[in-house]
Amino acid sequence: MIRINLLPVREARRAANMRKQGMLLVFAAGAGVAMCLLLSTWMAARIAHERSLITAREAELKKLDATLKEVKKFQTEQEEIEQKLAIIGQIEAARMGPVKIMDELATRIPQRVWLTKMSEKSGRLELEGRSIDAEVVADFAAVLEDSPILSGVDLQETHLEEVDGLKLSAFKLTAQYPFVKDAGQPPAKGRRGAPNPAGAAAGGAKKPGTE
Q: Domains in the chain: how many in total?
């Protein structure tokens, strides 16, 4: 009987299998390294992109912050200008107020009415004077109430007063001048006829009885 020794064949197959497994391991390791390199490159690119976005957003925020500061500065300047304009308006109203009041009185005071005293404080006007009778005084108060710059006209008192032998009706009235009425409203006339501009001038200069 012939015997064949198979050990060298088995050893050769085992060696071939080991070489094959080694090559597979090397291939797998190479593939893993390649995957790691690709993943690392992709992550680095993504990080760089995100950092560039963050830098761009930070630059935009700086621009917006500068713009916001400019807007706040503009608002502050606008408020200061508005405050100055309001002060100027108040000064102008205070300066023109007495002039307008005197003009209104000169335009609206009826004949046979004389003013003896006029005072104003904090928008409150007080007038004292005399007339030939109480009805003319009532007409004067009604005419003043129709004035576009006066309001709240109140005839507080009237009484008889003897001056140079004449019995006259002395009166005292008050009014407010807030300057809020319609300036385009035409001046009203009194119930006793058209207003006499000369009456106001006579009010401070003429004496009763010289009419």
A: 1
